[in-house]
Amino acid sequence: MADVLYDMGGWRGDVSTTFILNGKSTTVDVDPQMPLLWVLRDTLDMTGTKFGCGMALCGACTVHIDGEPARSCITPIASVSGKKITTIEGLSADGSHPVQKAWMEEDVPQCGYCQSGQIMSAVALLAKKTNPTDADIDDAMSGNICRCGTYQRIRKAIHKAAAQSSKA
Amino acid sequence: MNTAAFSRREFLKAGTAGGAALVIAFHYPARTADDPAKAQEQQPPNPFDAWIRITPDDHVTLILGKSEMGQGVFTSLPMILAEELCVDWKNVKVEQAATEPKIYDLGTGGSGSVAGSWLPLRQAGAAAREMLILAAAKKWEVGPDTCKAQNGFVVHGHPERTLRYGELVGDAATLPVPSFKTVPLKNSDSFTIVGEDKHRLDSSAKTNGSAKFGIDSRVPEMTYAVVARCPVFGGKLSSFDAEKAKAVPGVLDVFSFETAGKGASITGGVAIVATNSWAAMQGRKALAVKWDEGAAANESTEELNKHFIENASKPGKVVRNDGDANSAIADGTKKIEAIYELPFAAHVCMEPMNCTVHIQADRAEAWVPTQAPQWAQAVIAEAAKLPPEKVVVHTTLMGGGFGRRYQADFVMEASQIAKKTGKPVMVLWTREDDMQHDFYRPASHHKLQGALDAKGNLKAWKHFQTSTSIAVKWEQNGDEKPEQSEFGTAATIPYVTPNVRIEYALAHSSVPRAWWRSVEHSSSGFVVESFVDELAREAGQDPLAFRLKMIGDSRKVPQFGEGPDSPPLDTGRLKGVLQLAAEKAGWGKKLPQGEGQGIAAFFSFDSYVGAVAEVSAGSQGIVVKRLVCAVDCGRPINPNGIRAQVESAAIYALTATVKDAITIERGRVAQANFNDYAMVRMKEAPPVEVHVVMSSEAPTGIGEPTVPVLAPAICNAIFAATGKRLRRLPIRASDLA
């Protein structure tokens, strides 16, 4: 796939960073210290990844870096050079990922703002543990705050996604 | 000054009492004060222009004025409209209405959307249905009374012939609009949508990243701004040096601005405008700024608590006085007294405040995550010196509202900055900005006194409260009646006693405060339902049995201080949720040592919620193991959505019960982010079981009324487990020492 170069007006340096974003090679010309979150949101206009705290305290900005969940709000863009980034937009082409489907079936989202991060954490959990226990869910999901209190529906949806994946 | 200043109370009264009135009861002083009455006399809008769009291929889009902040109005309100319209629910989509107050009931709060929209949206849907039927009848040249609407078709005769809505809508939309007052409404026994569990209509967008919140607004040539604000409430900008801030790559401009008016939380500040959010934040870090902190710089939570105690040492203003509570307490055989304390609380929407505005010479456009789009429109119009109709406000999805987004302070900032830049600009708040410049739930201090007679019946109830009143900030007569926003149904206790005395004293504070989820009921529920539990223990009775006995016969108690439009407290329904929660929780069952059950029930937003909490408590900590809630919010529209709101309010209230307080030091908020103002997380979230009463009463609120019962249910359970009564929120394991 062709490289796409995005110029961030204002950055007067000459350092560009290239990474694989949702399967596509992407190059941005921005301050190397700029967090991945803001590159996604403001440079690339990919707004599915959310800003919640800026300090890796709430999990709203969770993406996958080389398959591992990471808080994009404290991840300098230079540190992801050459790495594979997956965001909520890249999880599936049509919202058909088993976790997304389970989320809809259980009506997990209320305001929905934290749910991109919740889903990315849940997908990362299920990649490691195909049939997680409640304790596994507690461990993997307690970095993600939901102010609407959708936790028990998240728990149920993760179990459901696990069950559906094991059937598939 | 024509900024729309209004109070939520005024809005709610007018909004819910209006019935058929589809105009918003939004308070514009003087200029448009007589508009609502005039508008009511007008012809109702054509429903096919206002609420319903049907395409030739039968896709149905319902257009709604309410704001979606998670509470599910984009599902429950379409259900009401679709029910009367008789369409296939599978074909229904939803769209946010324009900020057009002549048509839409704008303004979302007070758990009032379903209650206030129930009749008007039914009427609108029914009018459209009748127009479709008439269009079909004309085509067939038959009487409209021989035709009926069914699942997106009009049908007639034997053998049956049908026309699709998509075929009829062109003709139907040109027919006269039936009177909303007389249009026939469906019988509830023929409902096929209302009362059924429905999936949310917005789940797909909210699971694939495509849902657009305010913060996701993207406009060509837009810039991003953050604001440096005085950390002390009421402080002013003294001076600033922009040189270092301007040197940050991406920073475009740095300038000061002022905000003023009733909804302004700050006096202004310094805007840092940049090509992206992060550059703006970096610019703010580099900014050299000096503040004139002003008189509030000496305020602190410690001083406020002293002020509370001093107020409580003197008689307060008498708010309600039945019988002679003072003498009854003096003479009582058994009497108890208790002090309850609640701190300031922040809303903490997951999406920090933000607003995008573009002001041009002859028009303005804005993308605002707001519960009050009409207020946002008025604020921008004033800043831009444009008439409101030249200001297009797009209400976006909101990452939480909880009352915070009823405010327009962030709109004031954005419009002042946009006026200066001339380009579209998003003002973005960081988490720290959001937590430190909120309109907080008031801090309050309550002295409760009660007396029992020899039989253990309630002989007297006295409630003294001192608080940082909301009304004194927001109501026109708030200085004379600061108590009007502080008791809610705590002044309408359902427990029968001949002697009731309610007193109030205002506590002064510069901390902005307003409507936090459930408003005054969050403190009232805690105080009333904790103290009645204390009385039950004093009487040596089971807390459930004592409540049921003291509530007594089923009857309707007028809400104290409210007009005839406010529905009375129906004690039968209150007992109903108490008994249902108790039954489902297995009230009174044997629990292991160190565990306990607590119960509470409260009436707010015209709804009834009962809750039983099960906790384990000891020096190792307090663990809430299970919450069982019973709710009676009248006729359930979407039981699935009701359960979600109860689950949500329970966790929201749990955070306020077991996590952190907002405290003030040197005139500023001491907490800044989730590390020092923590939220309940997955591992601490108990299962919440919700039981919905299948009532046929008019639907009432559900977003908020679970909040008031949670803290008392938990604290009553802790008492049952440990014998220790916790009267100060938030609670701490160390309180048990």
Write the SSE topology:
The complex is a heterodimer of chains A (168) and B (737).
Chain A: E1 4-7, E2 17-21, E3 24-29, H1 36-43, E4 62-65, E5 68-71, E6 84-86, H2 98-105, H3 115-128, H4 134-141, H5 151-167
Parallel strand pairs in A: 1-3, 2-6
Antiparallel strand pairs in A: 2-3, 4-5, 4-6
Helix pairs in contact in A: 2-5, 3-4
Chain B: H1 8-17, H2 35-41, H3 47-50, E1 52-54, E2 60-64, H4 73-85, E3 92-96, H5 113-140, E4 147-150, E5 153-156, E6 161-164, H6 165-172, E7 223-229, E8 236-241, H7 243-246, E9 251-258, E10 268-274, H8 277-286, E11 288-292, H9 301-312, E12 317-322, H10 325-331, E13 334-342, E14 354-359, E15 364-368, H11 373-384, E16 391-395, H12 409-421, E17 425-428, H13 431-436, E18 444-452, E19 458-467, H14 471-474, E20 499-506, H15 521-538, H16 543-551, E21 556-557, E22 569-570, H17 571-585, E23 595-604, E24 607-618, E25 621-632, H18 639-658, E26 664-665, E27 668-669, E28 688-692, H19 707-722
Parallel strand pairs in B: 2-3, 7-17, 15-16, 19-20, 25-28
Antiparallel strand pairs in B: 1-2, 4-5, 5-6, 7-10, 8-11, 9-10, 12-20, 13-18, 14-15, 14-17, 18-19, 21-22, 23-24, 24-25, 26-27
Helix pairs in contact in B: 4-5, 5-6, 11-12, 15-19, 16-17, 18-19
